[in-house]
Specification:
422 residues, alpha/beta, Rossmann fold, 15 helices, 14 strands, cytoplasm, RNA-binding, RNA binding, nucleotide-binding
């Protein structure tokens, strides 16, 4: 069936409506993409014409495919003769704040390059440095996907050069700012092709004044596209808040996780040390669990995610930064062991469940220490949350007593006891 014979669907744009190279269209069809998401439908007409873009869209809206399709089409339209292609000189750079996001971008890029012959290279911390350096030195790099820290290392050792860049992509700029990466990003951009000689696409879930100031520095006459989420919280996620004391949270969590309807669960806490303590407590109670935070080596994080996907781990304990990189289907429950201080993080957390048309459940614990976050969260999501006391079955005492810890303190490393003063 030709493009003109395809039935028109009101309010929807087909990828076949864009004048994309046949090899790219074949990859898009192979992935199963037919209709554009709103961010794709609004940005592609602009970016394919070569305009710089500032895009506001939440994670999971399809922005990754939007900027990758633009990048690949641009390379196909302006091919470089093979004898003029050199190692260490990428044509496209995609910067991401987290390793998980970088890996997802690279995976999507490889799928879209399935028939085009373009090479995708990923450089990020926590993975084999020598292997990444060898790829940069010895392979023609078309698309480079990187986290800022590791890219700075390779720029310093002159294993990569960005002065032949055609397209710069900065993803999750707000998270870059939150994580303190902006000085690194500025150093990287100073090494890039000047902004009037490249195309720049910048995406962010939110745009405060700091992000807008950076965007104006890094882009040239950029178009602005804003995609409001259809709902700030997933309509398929049933949200409940349990009013509990701080010392009751573990009891309620363990009893709830043991319910048969809990298949895959992600448990969020606000700090790394809280996550470490909680993961140890859950293991002690016999819950099949693992820790996912920024301090865990990347290879171990990937193995942990694989175990979670295949069901050999029932629950992940995660920080907000690590949680943004979790894209696993079939997550039945999200638990907020602590309410986040940032209302937007609440939305990102519960968005890990209720995906792809499935029903999800979000359970949040509000003690006297974190209940103050509730009004801001309710204001942000535009709805009142159901606050209730746990039922009696959730309050049954645990067989193994919880580890006593001083409030707000840190326990000694595993296996060591504090020395008694004489």
């Amino acid at each position: 069936m030709s493009t003109t014979e395809l039935p028109v669907e009101e309010g929807k744009t087909r990828f076949t409506e864009f004048n994309l190279d046949g090899k790219l269209q074949k990859a898009i069809q192979g992935i199963g993409f037919e209709f554009c998401t709103p961010i794709q439908a609004e940005t592609l007409p602009l970016t394919l014409e070569g305009h710089d873009l500032i895009g506001q869209a939440q994670t999971g809206t399809g922005k990754t495919a939007a900027f990758l399709i633009t990048a690949i089409q641009r390379m196909l339209q302006s091919p470089i003769p093979f004898e003029e292609r050199y190692a260490s000189e990428p044509r496209v750079l995609a910067l991401a704040p987290t390793r998980e996001l970088a890996l997802q971008i690279a995976k999507d890029a490889e799928q879209l390059c399935a028939h085009t012959g373009h090479n995708v290279v990923t450089v990020l911390g926590g993975m084999n440095y020598d292997k990444q350096r060898d790829q940069l030195r010895n392979e023609v790099v078309d698309i480079l996907v990187a986290t800022p820290g590791r890219l700075i290392d390779f720029l310093g050792s002159q294993d990569v050069f960005l002065d032949q860049l055609d397209l710069l992509i900065i993803d999750e700029a707000d998270r870059m700012l939150d994580m303190g990466f902006i000085p690194d990003v500025k150093r990287i951009i100073r090494k890039c092709t000047p902004k009037d000689e490249r195309q720049t696409l910048l995406f962010s879930a939110t745009f405060n004044q700091d992000v807008l100031n950076l965007a104006s520095m890094w882009t040239r006459s950029a178009e602005f596209v804003e995609i409001e989420p259809e709902q700030k919280t997933a309509e398929r996620v049933e949200q409940t808040v349990y009013m509990v004391g701080e010392d009751e949270k573990l009891r309620v969590l363990v009893n709830y996780i043991q319910r048969p309807e809990v298949d895959k669960a992600i448990i969020f806490a606000n700090r790394r040390d809280q996550c470490r303590d909680l993961e140890e407590d859950l293991r002690r109670q016999g819950v099949s669990t693992a820790l996912l935070s920024g301090e865990i080596a990347q290879n171990k994080r990937l193995r942990t995610l694989d175990k979670f996907k295949n069901g050999s781990i029932k629950a992940l304990v995660a920080t907000d930064v690590a949680g943004r990189g979790i894209h696993v289907s079939g997550v039945t429950h999200v638990f907020n062991y602590n309410l986040p201080e940032n209302a937007e993080d609440y939305v990102h957390r519960i968005g890990r469940t209720g995906r792809a048309g499935q029903h999800g459940v979000s359970i949040s614990f509000a003690s006297e220490d974190d209940a103050f976050s509730l009004p801001a969260i309710e204001s942000y999501i535009g709805q009142k949350l159901s606050c209730t006391l746990p039922d009696e079955a959730l309050m049954v005492p645990l067989e193994k007593p919880a580890i006593e810890r001083k409030r707000g303190g840190r326990r000694p490393p595993s296996g060591r006891r504090p020395q008694r003063r004489s």
